[in-house]
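Have a close read of this protein, sequence plus structure tokens, and explain what the tokens say about the fold. Thanks in advance:
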Amino acid sequence: MQMTINGYVGGLNGENDWMTWNPDAEFIEFLNSLLDTSDTLLLGRKAAEDMINFWEDTANKNPAHPFAKKIADIPKVVFSKTLDKSIWNNTTLAKGNLAEEITSLKNQSRSPSGGKDILVFGGAGFVSSLIKEGLIDEYHLIINPTAMSNGMTIFSSLDSIRKFTPIQSKLYPGGKTVLSYKPKND
């Protein structure tokens, strides 16, 4: 999840003009590694409306883009209460109970036939719901060297303190810092 140094993941209306994009080879390699170890991408409907079309267009216009084709090709599950059918390629809808849908996807991913990680690409409300339900196994918080006075957060729906175990932190040459954590189960 991309965020500012003070924890915002979007402007009050979801703006993302605060994000810095000065990709370096190491950061691109990190993003590629996340995609390479995943076989499913989860999105909320609002994020899907912007992201899927953007990455499919980018992949069509620039097939050599470091990860656009990977994002376009990975099977996607869009969580929506308003859509009746998928309007995107390689995408299915999930309309049921969030915890049940995620548990089902995790069980499919852990089947004897294999399966990889499930990756989540926001948006803020969807990720906040996943956090509240304790459905995220690993966090990769991508800190942009920016701050703003107010905006959307992903941890505001918590009703109690959650503790995490640090996995790693890495400052990339382009200026982003990735903080990775696993939830503590105590």
Observations:
- The mean pLDDT is 90.
- The beta strands are 2-3, 38-44, 76-79, 91-94, 117-120, 139-143, 164-171, 177-183.
- Helices lie at 25-36, 45-61, 68-73, 98-109, 124-132.
- Residues 38 and 117 are 4 Å apart (CA to CA).
